[in-house]
Input
Amino acid sequence: MTRLLALVLAAACLAAGCGSGGDSSTGASGPKRVATLPTSGTVTYTDGRVYTVAPLGDVLHLDDIDVKVQGVVWKPKVDLGSVGGVAIKPPPGTKTFGVVTLTVTNRSRKPERLGVTQIWLRNAAGSPYLASATARVPGNLLRMPIPAGKSVTGALVFPTPQEETGYLLVYRFDDSRAIAKASHVGLLRYAS
Output
């Protein structure tokens, strides 16, 4: 099981664009640069990007955002809304929809909103899936303002080809519009 978890984490890391991983050791000047991904903890990879990994059931803490998975439900169909009276179709290959209920806490000092590229679902092989910005579900987090210092609970809908197990890749609020430049990201396990 530990080997499978390490493989899942390594695949998620590679798909996220980092070149290597690490353990949860930290040095006096911050997270230690390492070559393997931990099951939990904060590490700096050899490419300089910092990853914080939260285990299943825990809260992922980054400096301006906390995220906790409350549950995941897989549905065969979700209303993706419409634009100009034309129904939005799911991406090609979509067979199911992961409706992920999250509690998100804004740890910054200003109101924030989740960006469409801020939280990605990644399966065990590292394949990335974006949340649907237009999904008509109660409490769509992509439409919800999050006041400074407050928490909200809502859902993100991920169209996928099958039920997936893996991680959510989470970017900080400050990095959500420029994710390629992000220096600190998080991985949060989820279970169906």
About this structure: The first helix runs from residue 2 to 15. Helices lie at 2-15. Residues 95 and 136 are 17 Å apart (CA to CA).
